[in-house]
Specification:
It contains 24 helices and 24 strands. It is of the alpha/beta class. It binds adenosine-5'-diphosphate and magnesium ion (MG).
């Protein structure tokens, strides 16, 4: 008997290889299968007579198979499978390419459904690669609205549908946590029906109801989690960190530049928060290059001056290393001790020292626990480490990942004083429009750096179509001849290439062999050892590499002011706000910078979308544009930032539902407080 907790290995039809693949998707149990939602549907419910089929339409027909055979294509490269399907009105040919096994699955005279697109012309129409299934009352792949799932390489839609179908009866065991009253008031279907119909909807209306219900539950849960975080914070105490005016002024003087008004304002809001005996919970939003680090440094300095420890968490080791260097410079007027702690590397430095000192992890942990280290900089992995602080006063999270109640608890337990909660500052270049941020993160205070430092030129952005590549390459060569450096960003092409190994390596090989054979090119992707990554980054920093080929994941936060040219391959695969973040990477000095958007796409929509970037340099506007065009799924490359990992089905464009669920959350808090106990606490901090 299956139960929700049955491991996938024990489900009929799941072999070892499939199990590995499912686990890669995060599907471990039968229950997980149920929560693996389709991302779209093919509507094959339109059952037609063969004679009525029209070229170009997507339809399903029911008939008998005749003349089924495999043959080799004339180029002998591929097996082609053909057959005719006949019903009482007529006959139509079906052709599959490279699927010879079909002749084993189907036989002449079988009664089957074919679903797919009708190709050809009026005189010779045929189904190309149709889905097929033997006739029954309970189809999964044809003759219905068919779910299309996110996959990983080597896993097919058919396999997933087959497995999900087996797990589906278990939905009856999943209790809806919504009270009847809320379900009624908002005209929702119950959870069991929703989960069943999200996968195999009886019809379009049922599918829509299922989507609405699941979005509703998800958003409601998010609001309730936010409520819990706020409540938790209101009931928590923190150590007030007094504002040290004189020293702060000294640090500002030492910056080497004048703070912008926006930086000043944000720093002030943060410092005021930190003086309170309630933990700060603030999000600092600011475009790439707007100077968030300097603002963060002022907060850190004031924490240290209060004899409290601070921690800065960065999303990658590279960024952590860069922060280690920047903070060391910025904090010079405050005599203090900084440590870098990542899985691959540990070192410490006194602001009065010249060179950092390598140190063992064990030793470093001891120094932190003894309060000898004032600022620890590391990756998210740090939270999972056995770090114990003596008195942690401030936590800063750069390029924030959602930080929930669980993480706060974990940090509080390590903070050296379980009675107090450290102040928390999250920083992001992700421009979430203000109103949206306030609704969806009702528990956060918001500071926005809405101007760039003066003198920054706008990155000259060009859309480069395939025939103009050479010109662009020549331009880049020329910049490099003048001593500049460049970045080449490659998108992840396949779901399975999460670390970008394939994408970046192929590009690297192409550029080194053909295009820029006379230049020094470096390669950076997620699978390199931290040490190698660092070597590559150092070389790039020191100008020993002309070009750096990297993936979208690795490069976040690279800060090399001498780099002023960027190529983004297959730019159409990214959201506008994300592209904007990328080009900010080469706009770190007062020199003119250039961003080339390469695209192979000729789709008018993509081109128009990319062209917005040419004239617009406002991250917030671009984010709103993304929101309009592509929905929140791709706003800011949500996967990359981890910002909305808690939303599986709802989108930030569901503005009405977001508001509706906000109201429902108040009802729950007032009338059904017991439900709050069951809400799973938010917060998945993703280590690298
Ligand atoms: P981000 O907000 O993307 O984290 P950084 O803090 O890394 O930006 O700052 C980007 C660059 O701009 C750094 O080299 C920093 O020294 C510089 N910078 C920051 N603030 C100012 C300012 N007010 N004037 C001039 N340069 C600044
Ligand atoms: Mg930054």
């Amino acid at each position: 008997m299956l139960s929700l907790n049955t491991p996938i290995e024990n489900i009929g039809g799941v072999g070892k290889t499939v199990a590995v693949k499912l686990k890669r998707l995060g599907v471990f149990t039968a229950g997980d299968l149920i929560y693996w939602y389709p991302f779209r549907y093919d509507d094959f419910s339109n059952l037609k007579k063969i004679d009525d089929l029209e070229v170009g339409e997507v339809a399903t027909v029911k008939g008998k198979i005749e003349l089924l055979e495999n043959r080799r294509s004339y180029k002998k490269k591929m097996i082609i499978t053909e057959c005719f399907l006949t019903d009482e009105s007529g006959s139509i040919k079906a052709i599959w390419f490279g699927q010879p096994f079909i002749t084993k699955l189907l036989q002449n005279n079988d009664e089957v459904y074919f679903s797919g697109k009708v190709e050809g012309d009026l005189f010779d129409s045929y189904f190309k690669n149709p889905s097929y299934e033997k006739v029954s009352n309970d189809t999964a792949h044809t003759a219905r609205i068919v779910p299309i799932y996110p996959l990983t390489v080597g896993l097919t839609q058919k396999q997933l549908r087959f497995l999900i179908k087996q797990a589906l009866p278990l939905v009856k065991q999943i209790a809806d946590w919504l009270p009847e009253k809320v379900i009624k008031n908002h005209q929702l279907i119950n959870l069991t029906d929703a989960l069943a119909n999200i996968h195999f909807p009886g019809n379009k209306q049922k599918m829509e109801q299922a989507v609405r219900k699941l979005k509703f539950n998800e958003l409601l849960q998010l609001h309730l989690q936010n409520y819990l975080i706020s409540k938790d914070l209101k009931e928590s105490i923190s150590t007030p960190l007094e504002f040290h005016e004189k020293k702060t002024k000294e640090i500002v003087k030492n910056l080497g530049f004048t703070l912008t008004d926006a930086q000043r304002k944000c720093a002030w809001q943060i410092l005021l928060d930190m003086e309170k005996p309630r933990p700060m919970n603030r999000l600092l939003e600011g475009d790439v290059g707007s100077g968030k680090t300097a603002v963060a440094a002022l907060a850190v300095a004031n924490c240290i001056l209060n004899k409290s420890q601070a921690v800065v968490l960065a999303p990658t080791e590279i960024l952590a290393s860069q922060h280690f260097q920047s903070f060391r410079e910025l904090l010079k007027p405050v005599e203090c001790c900084l440590a870098l702690l990542t899985s691959g590397k540990q070192m410490i430095i006194n602001t009065t020292d010249e060179e950092p000192e390598k140190i063992s992890k064990a030793k470093l942990l001891k120094l932190i626990a003894a309060g000898e280290i004032d600022l620890v900089i590391g990756t998210h992995a740090l939270i999972q480490e056995k770090v114990e602080f003596k008195n942690l006063g401030l936590v800063i999270i750069d390029e924030q990942h959602r930080f929930g109640v669980d993480q706060r608890k974990a940090i509080r337990e390590k903070s050296g004083d379980a009675a107090t909660t450290p102040h928390l500052l999250s920083m992001t270049a992700t421009p979430i429009p203000r109103t949206l941020a306030l609704t969806i993160y009702g528990n956060l205070d918001l500071s926005i750096i809405d101007e760039l430092p003066p003198g920054r030129k706008k990155p000259e952005t060009k859309l480069v179509e395939p025939q103009q590549r050479k010109q662009a390459y020549d331009f880049i060569k020329n910049q490099i001849k003048q001593g500049r450096q460049g970045l080449v960003i490659c998108p992840l092409i396949e779901e399975s290439d999460k670390l970008g190994v394939k994408a970046a390596t192929e590009e690297y090989q192409k550029l080194s062999a053909e295009v820029f054979s006379d230049l020094k090119i470096g390669l950076l992707h997620g699978k390199l050892k931290p040490k190698v990554k660092e070597e590559v980054m150092n070389k790039f920093h020191q100008g020993k590499l002309d070009l750096l080929v990297t993936t979208s994941v690795v490069e976040v936060g690279v800060n090399v002011p001498n780099a002023n040219v960027m190529i983004i391959e297959s730019a159409e695969r990214f959201g506008l706000a994300q592209l904007h973040q990328f080009r900010g990477r080469v706009n770190r000095s007062s020199r003119q910078s250039y961003c080339f958007l390469f695209t192979e796409s000729s789709a008018e929509k993509s081109i128009r979308r990319l062209k917005t970037l040419v004239g617009c340099f406002d991250g917030f506007k671009l984010a709103e544009e993304d929101l309009k065009i592509r929905g929140s799924g791709n706003l800011i490359g949500s996967k990359q930032t981890g910002f909305f990992t808690t939303l599986k089905i709802a989108k930030l464009t569901d503005v009405e539902l977001i508001e509706e669920t906000k109201k429902a959350s108040q009802i729950i808090v007032e009338e059904f407080p017991e439900i709050l106990e069951t809400i799973k606490l938010a917060g998945d901090v993703h280590p690298e």
